[in-house]
Amino acid sequence: MTKDSVSAVSWRQEEGVLCLLDQRALPAEERCVLCRTVEEAAQAIENMTVRGAPAIGITAAYAVVLAAPEGRDAVRAALDRLARTRPTAVNLFAALERMKRRFEAGPGLEGEALANALLREARAIHEEDIAGNRRMGAFGAELLPDHAVVLTHCNAGAIATGGHGTALGVLRSAREMGKQVKVYADETRPLFQGARLTAWELSRDGFDVTVIAEGMAGALMRQSRIDAVIVGADRIARNGDTANKIGTYGLSVLARAHSVPFYVAAPWSTFDLSAADGAAIPIEERAEEEMRLLPNGARLPEPIRVWNPAFDVTPAANIAAIITERGVFRPPYDFR
Ligand code: MRU
After folding, report:
1. Cβ neighbour number for residue 113 with a 10 Å cutoff
2. Is the pLDDT of residue 17 over 50?
3. Model confidence over 184-199: pLDDT tens digits?
4. pTM score > 0.90 for this model?
5. What is the CA(287)–ligand 1 centre distance, in A?
6. Selection from 208, 194, 265 nearest residue 51 by Cα
7. Are residues 218 and 302 in the same domain?
8. Which ligand 1 atom is the nearest neighbour of the CA of 56?
9. Which of 222-226, 230-234, 268-272, 319-323 has the lowest mean pLDDT?
10. 208 a catalytic residue
11. Which atom of ligand 1 is nearest to the CA of 311?
12. Is residue 336 part of a domain?
């Protein structure tokens, strides 16, 4: 029996503060960053103390609660500030929209009453995410054989969500069903979410996990049995085109070339049905500095240019199925 070993986001009711597992420090150190203000929470999303599409949505929801004691204008300002943190993961905007609706549903609420109403909504977003991941995990686990060998990219685990995980939730659920699972984790440059977070999260739960550099995935698929690639998502368009961590698209091309099924696991809050296709998805470009620091401690000198998009779009044609809490969708996609 596996458990949701670690939580990325928790609300400390006694102190009225938000505790974020500092994902920048992993795997060297497990420490909590306390956010007492909206600005602290917004910066924690921007600097990736907390990351992963559902986890940043949940963080933003709790962050709105932090504004309530300052009054209704502060809540409005919080909704605006948090919406300007990271552009690609639509879960952030879905969570803020729910918080805004809750705020507007109680026009006379102030102070503690307002904070309590907002906290109930943030908790609901958090709990629904965990419950959804468990349902999604059960659907996805059916797709895997016993003794499955799975390749994953970035971190779509418990710490990228409210708990259990999306892609890693499928693996956890498969194990709970009694299936054995071996995992390859792409290291995921430039911030190493695969090596630092996925490998750590899975190995502390007793999974057999091996880290590879992205450049090794093709050779791995050619030489070894890989039963499936499973990744998470940051935004899924109406036609199934899916934005996820940079490198996902290349992996989908390799999977297709090697006849390996490529699955996306994501909750309904990751769907943007207003986006007709992947071209409508905004792709975050992050600071050059993330790319300039080299593993030997040297720095790429300035005349050398750097391109650092945080996400890419995998065309629906490369995706065998999209696993959600509502079931498994296969092409041609109709997400109504
Ligand atoms: O830049 P990050 O680390 O926030 O990117 C995260 C990813 O791309 C994840 O794979 C995605 O959010 C799915 S998380 C369940």
Report:
1. 12
2. yes
3. 999 999 999 999 999 9
4. yes
5. 17
6. 194
7. yes
8. 4
9. 222-226
10. no
11. 8
12. no
- Helix ranges, the chain (H): 38-46, 53-67, 72-83, 90-105, 111-141, 167-176, 199-204, 217-223, 248-257, 289-292
- The domain boundary, picked from 106, 133, 160, lies at 133
CATH at residue 80: 1.20.120.420
**112 CA → ligand 1 middle, Å:** 34
Taking phi over 0 as left and psi of -120 to 50 as alpha, with beta for the rest, 240 belongs to: left
Q: What's the number of domains the chain is made of?
A: 2
Establish if 200 belongs to a structural domain: yes
* Domain extent at residue 313: 145-329
Asked if 11 and 61 count as a contact pair (C-beta separation under 8 A), the reply is: no
Asked whether residue 308 is domain-assigned, the answer is yes
Integer angstrom CA distances of residue 150 from 24, 42, 128, 281: 25, 34, 27, 27
Dist. CA 299–CA 289, nearest whole Å: 9
Q: Which of the listed residues 105, 133, 161 is the one where a domain comes to its end?
A: 133
Distance CA 71, CA 161 (A): 29
For ligand 1, the distance from its centroid to the CA atom of residue 231, given in whole angstroms, is: 9
Residue 294's SS3 state is coil
User: Could you give the 3-state DSSP secondary structure of residue 21?
Assistant: strand
Res 2 pLDDT > 90: no
- What are phi and psi for residue 161, nearest 5 degrees? -140, -170
Active-site option among 234, 241, 272, 312: 234
Tokens of 304: 């050398």
